[in-house]
Amino acid sequence: MLPWDRTVTVGHVSLGSLRACTCFAVPSCPSDSMAVERSNLLSMMKLSVKVLIQSTLGLGRSLDSDYPPLQQFFVVLEHCLKHGLKVRKSFIGQNKSIWGPLELVEKLCPESADIATSARDMPGIKTGLGRARAWLHLALMQKKVSDYMKALLDRRDLLSEFYDPGALMMEEEGTVIVGMLVGLNVIDANLCVKGEDLDTQVAVIDFSLYLKDPQSNESPKDDGKMTAILDQKHYIEELNRHLSCTVTDLQAKMDSLEKTNSKLIEELSAATDRINALKEEQEQLKLENLSILQRSKQKQEVTQQDNEVELETYRQSRQGLDEMYKEVWKQYKEEKRIRQELQKELELQVGLKQEMEVAMKLLEKDTHEKQDTLAALRQQLDQVKSLNLQMFHKTQDADRIVQRKDEEVQQLEGRMSHMMTAMKEASITISGVLGLESDLRSEKEQRQSMQKELRREQDNSTELRTQLQQLQGLQKELQDLREEKKQLQRTCEEQEQALQEMGLHLSQSKLKMEDFKEVNKALKGHAWLKDDEATQCKQCQKEFSIARRKHHCRNCGDIYCSQCSSNELALPSYPRPVRVCDTCHTLLLQRSSSTGS
């Protein structure tokens, strides 16, 4: 159990062979309990340091790690460092280790970097508590425990991340313990840290070392007394040196405080002078404010009169504007109706134009196809003409051959008749007659074949004549299509001219519509802005003042300064030229120029 728990057990106190277990209760209030715990730990630290120094005087001021008073000193120092330590959360779980504040010493004292790295890299140590115990052993061997603790206590703003407000390290008891640790510089400690199990050591304070039996005390020798006196002398000198250092630090702090005090006094005198000057300026500003108020009242009266005059003119102009608005609204409706009709006609014309374009494309395709067919038919006609010539020549040759054959047949018939007569007369042999008959048959067959060929040629000539007639009809259709194409092109040109005229008419109607809309905005949308609503000019963004007055634009109704509204133009709602802002002036001029053109 730790000494700052609600109930603390201090057990195993050995007095001879007696073993006892003592319990004591801590006050219930947290602040009182923290104070009691701090006083208990301070007294325990005093006892442990005193016993350690007294016991080492007889050993030649050299210690090892197995020495019981040294082990108890490390246990008490560990309890002092754990007092009021905050629980830090991590991914693994809650962690409450003194290694975090001891790591800060490496940043504050660069010479402690060696022992910090050796404590981190030491084999066999896995926990932060083990690293902290190894760091304390190495710092004691360097004889710089008090210096490192003093550097740590000087930066309590960094320690507040690790300790609660009532912890021992955050109060004055910590500085007292650092002063006690200065006496440990007379001790030479030769400790072996590698072989020890620093992670699993149980930190329990054993009070048996601090409870002594008066019967067991023996009278020390004179040599022991001398060594004790010398060690006490060294201890007192070390304390004196530490105290002188603290006195010099306090003296330097006093000097700095005196300097800051003198600076603050000078600043206070300067502040009083400034306050007096500011009071005088305040009185002057009050007088100026009164004069400005009087002027503003006078100007307000003048502006109120101007506003009344403007209101009367506005009311008079409002009646004329209402009448004009009614007339303009009627014209607007008529123009809108005309525009809708024109849009419908335009859509019809566009549709007709698209249909005409499609028809033109189809006609072009048909003409191209028919021209191709004409070219093919002309080629066929040429071929037919050449074939007709050939057939004509062949028929002429065939007619000649037929005439020859007819003549030969007639000659043969005459011969036959002569031969028949000769056979009758002279009884010609049968063999000669048979040969003549075979010649006659062959000539008949040739004559029949020639007649068939003549019939075929006549059929071909009739077909060619029909194709010629078809070609002549196609040529007539081509001429008709060309005439239709010319008529369609004329109609397209006429429709394009009509569309251009319609576009001009539409643009003029759009301009009139825009004029009507702007007049409508002037009558309805643009409200007459009040003087209280405008604090700066709408165009140049300059604040209005006594020198820079407010002026209304009679077209848009906004408020401008005199420089941004110095133009005058005649408006439909006003019979004479009135004040207009720069933007409205340019817009009205552009509109008038566009309508004139």
From TrEMBL:
Keywords, in A-Z order: Coiled coil, Endocytosis, Endosome, Lipid-binding, Membrane, Metal-binding, Phosphoprotein, Protein transport, Transport, Zinc, Zinc-finger
Predominant subcellular localization, coarse grouping: membrane
Gene3D superfamilies: 1.20.5.170, 1.20.58.900, Zinc/RING finger domain, C3HC4 (zinc finger) (3.30.40.10)
Coiled coil: 240-295
GO biological process annotation, one example: protein transport
Membrane topology annotation: Peripheral membrane protein
Protein name: RUN and FYVE domain-containing protein 1
Organism: Scleropages formosus
